[in-house]
Automatic annotation (TrEMBL), chains A, B:
Pathway: Cofactor biosynthesis; NAD(+) biosynthesis; nicotinate D-ribonucleotide from nicotinate: step 1/1. The keyword Hydrolase does not apply. Residues 424-532 form the Nicotinate phosphoribosyltransferase C-terminal domain. CDD domains: NAPRTase_A (cd01570). GO terms for cellular component: cytosol. The lineage of its organism: Eukaryota, Choanoflagellata, Craspedida, Salpingoecidae, Salpingoeca. GO terms for biological process: NAD+ biosynthetic process via the salvage pathway. It catalyses: 5-phospho-alpha-D-ribose 1-diphosphate + nicotinate + ATP + H2O = nicotinate beta-D-ribonucleotide + ADP + phosphate + diphosphate. It comes from Salpingoeca rosetta (strain ATCC 50818 / BSB-021). This is Nicotinate phosphoribosyltransferase. Its EC number is 6.3.4.21. Transiently phosphorylated on a His residue during the reaction cycle. Phosphorylation strongly increases the affinity for substrates and increases the rate of nicotinate D-ribonucleotide production. Dephosphorylation regenerates the low-affinity form of the enzyme, leading to product release.
Length: 548, 548
């Protein structure tokens, strides 16, 4: 279980990380003595990202940690005084000095759940001014975390369950913390490791990485390596000149190469061979070579094989190669052929364990296309498209007032998609015979929950004629209480448990909701009571138009 | 002048905020005793973002601050030991413990400059392992800062110099720091203010904001306001019931409204009127009303006018309205008509100073389209599209080795766009008769600089036939030394000076390079000497293909 005692790791996640209008509204509420009115807000989104029909909810623990440490420092208040000016009543700043989340309650769907439009992810209750003041920070913490976790889950679906997925995005991320947030939530969403060392240290995520082109470019042959000795894997002996052994392997390979699937005379770049040898001496049991600096199939792959054969002689198993340009499907197929052929020709079974990693501008489309072309890639390194969510770089979650001092609040809009569902609500997920979720249903607070095996009338919230009886085989309450008037009220999972939850939740979802092309929308409905409540309020509040 | 003595404000910007392969490469260099080889790297990008032909360079001060505090803590090293395992030579960790930027030199183009593809923004020299270790963090700090500043500059160009531009993006940003970075660099790139209070406090950026729909929804008439007294602007007296005054103004407005351009019977929402009144009592000299909660033209704008007339009676000048939905051009034109008509009818000249602010999913296209429709908007609030750079969420700057121990390094590629320009280089910007830049030219280090009035042969770096004599009227050296072996070597501008520099640099650029549709590419060229050097090296290193 995670504790909320430590403050947010990003020291900038504080009360002032908000929109100024939250402060000015708080003042106007305070001035009108409405600041302690009891308010309920719903945090939800209106459309799943990436033209998909599901979203992974993340950012809850970050939000709770922010709440647990919520408050304004003297320095903050000093700054606000200078901004708001002399006309502001000094009593307001005295009020702000003592604001905290001790009178706030948070109900939420568990983090890592698959979630759908219109269903509140977080329901916040508390004094109007306080629950208004936290709006922007909660949205900032939930929006990107959920977006990037969803993106990672989609990449995982496209690559299949066996591929090892590596997140390499830090350098292209939207700022240092954009990178760190992405690394964390990509892991939760379905990736196996990150290149981001800070994320590894802070979040206990496996880290991965080998070398860059600059490493290969910086070697001039293996004579540059002053100490070329390398111990055997079992420490039984030391090879005095591993470089010499590599050269011998290359020479044997050259004699044989015309019989290989390449069927050409072999002439590899010897600077590259030097770089690979140096890297193998440094990491004999984790030797993974970037093979495209000069020419992937004519130089990089055979050089890798020469070094790998030498490593095998010393009892090590070579890790593999990384492809970073060109036609990845073709190159992976050819590379695998060369590796298999060499393993057989040189009677070196260990060589077959070498993995093929591919990177270079990979997105969901690339993954689908590679699959169609029968690629032989074992692992994908993904950067820009994953961490910046290039296909849709923002999730539009909103935070709307639904009740004030027991009275429902409803935002109307000419656009029915923007109408909010008023009042405090409960929510349930109804599952069918095969265990897969059929629909989510929202009820007025206190209504009787749906019961397993009994017909429950589910209604479209805004379209009268759309309704259906559902006889659920399983009923899951959507909300738990996570924060109850100043106290953590629920156990929080570790990052690894969250990752596991995402995997299970995505697996449980029906295939047609997950597919990339024209997925079936998942149904979100309301109870009959809630339906009637919405529509009575709507008629009460909507002005009757005047045609002219 | 800014000092580098304070560490980066984001406590996560540290040596471990890097890709793991930087560490593994550093180890392999160290193992091969190459770690102190003298290396030069260029940081540059290959294509300007947003289908444009210019980029604003930002992130230099953040990079220098990172460098000034660069190093690994004991805790960092402990973590790396657990990750790298027992086979790693302990001497490497001893080496890492003392690594810093004291032997590193940084030349760069001044921050806030307009910059172009292929021209190094930052040139780093130092020990190979050290300058390799800083790669990822420099890219993270430069990529997003430059991208979002460029985006802001483009929004500013589209909106024109007079519009007041407000950045409202925090809630949709890519993480808390993504939001903070965006707020800072949008201000530098051309925006006037941000809603982000933390950005205001940390960076001395003006902050802006009024109230949300929830504020309006949370009022039930003005009877809810317990104290409706309001002092006159000159403090000469106090209006005992400002709410009553507002009601009288609304009543007068109702009698007159049929003669207004609206030409209908006036019936506004009184809950909204209550909310506006409460807000005006809190902020009488900064009264700006969000007018679209119920109905912009039938309720919000007339309610605003009623409150504004009452404020004028007390000697205040109302600030204005915010439109947040619907047809912004039409609504701004109509709102302006109503305001002008009332100002004249009620002999209240101050009302005319009310500004019209518009928000709601604004991007470059919207700004251009609004201009075509003759909008009357004075100020734009921009969020998602601005801060997440929705049109292109990543800049692809790279960091490539160009020289090692005096020998040039050149990355070859089948894609000529990816070939790097080898060796240490100087750079100059050549200006024409009207002062506008004509082209940038890169020279080999130590070559004689172009001279005002003398013809200089500028060559395309990769296409033999493209060359031209340029007779510059002004020659600006591109690079300054910012960090010289452990010491800050150049004054750093304040954020306001940076903003000023961006404005001047964009203004100086020829219009055809800046236009949105099919802008003219700006020429980046090399000297004859550098051209020859590139192409001799290319022939030396490129393998001769084998057709089969």
């Amino acid at each position: 279980m995670q504790s909320l005692a430590t403050p947010p790791e990003n020291t900038l996640v504080k009360a002032l990380l908000t929109d100024y209008y939250q402060i000015t509204m708080a003042y106007a509420y305070w001035r009108s003595k409405k600041h302690n009115s009891r308010a309920s807000f719903d945090l939800f989104f209106r459309k799943s990202p990436f033209q998909g029909e599901f979203t992974i909810f993340c950012g809850l623990e970050d939000s709770l940690r922010f709440l647990a440490h919520f408050g304004f420092s003297d320095e903050d208040i000093q700054y606000l005084k200078t901004v708001m000016g002399d006309t502001t009543d000094p009593g307001f700043f005295e009020y702000l000095r003592h604001v905290d989340a001790s009178d706030v309650t948070v109900h939420a769907i568990p983090e890592g759940s698959v979630v759908f439009p219109k269903v509140p992810l977080i329901r916040v209750e508390g004094p109007l001014a306080v629950v208004q003041l936290i709006e922007t920070t909660l949205l900032t913490l939930v929006n990107f975390a959920s977006l990037v976790a969803t993106n990672a889950a989609r990449f995982r679906l496209a690559a299949g369950p066996k591929a090892r997925m590596l997140e390499f995005g830090l350098r292209r991320a939207q700022g240092p913390d954009g990178g760190l947030t992405a690394s964390k939530y990509c892991y939760i969403g379905g990736f196996d490791a990150t290149s981001n060392v800070m994320a590894g240290k802070l979040h206990d995520i496996p880290i991965a990485g080998t070398h860059a082109h600059s490493f290969v470019s910086s070697f001039r042959g293996m004579e540059e390596i002053p100490d070329r000795s390398l111990a055997y894997a079992d420490k039984s002996d030391t090879c005095k000149d591993f470089g010499q052994l590599v050269k011998e392997k290359l020479s044997q390979l050259q004699s044989a190469w015309i019989d290989s699937p390449a069927a050409v005379h072999l002439e590899t770049n010897l600077d590259e061979l030097g770089a690979f040898t140096a890297y193998a001496i440094a990491f004999p049991s984790k030797f993974l070579a970037l093979v495209d600096t000069y020419d992937t199939l004519r130089s990089g792959v055979p050089n890798f094989i020469a070094v790998a054969l030498a490593l095998c002689d010393l009892g090590y198993a070579p890790h593999g190669i990384r492809l970073d340009s060109g036609d990845l499907a073709y190159q992976s197929i050819e590379s695998r052929k060369y590796i298999s052929w060499t393993a057989e020709r040189f009677k070196c079974e260990k060589l077959n364990s070498a993995l093929i990693v591919a990177s270079n501008d990979i997105n969901e489309d690339t993954l689908n296309s590679l699959a169609q072309h029968g690629h032989r890639i074992d692992s994908f390194g993904v950067g820009t498209h994953l961490v910046t969510c290039q296909a849709q770089p923002a999730l539009g979650a909103v935070y709307k007032i639904v009740e004030l001092d027991g009275n429902p609040c409803m935002k109307l809009s000419a656009d029915v998609e923007k109408v909010t569902i008023p009042g405090k609500k409960d929510g349930y997920r109804l599952h069918g015979r095969d265990g897969a979720p059929i629909c989510d249903v929202l009820l007025r607070e206190g209504e009787k929950a749906p019961v397993v095996g009994e017909a429950f009338l589910c209604r479209h919230p805004f379209q009268e004629q759309k309704r259906a009886h559902v006889r659920p085989q399983k009923v899951t309450p959507l909300y738990k209480t996570y924060w109850d008037k100043g106290e953590a009220a629920c156990e929080l999972p570790t990052i690894h448990e969250l990752k596991q939850r995402v995997t299970e939740q995505v697996a449980e979802l029906r295939q047609d909701h997950k597919r990339r092309l024209n997925p079936t929308p998942y149904k979100v409905s309301v109870s009959s009571d809630l339906y009637t409540y919405i529509h009575e309020l709507w008629l009460q509040h909507a002005p009757i138009g005047e045609l002219s």
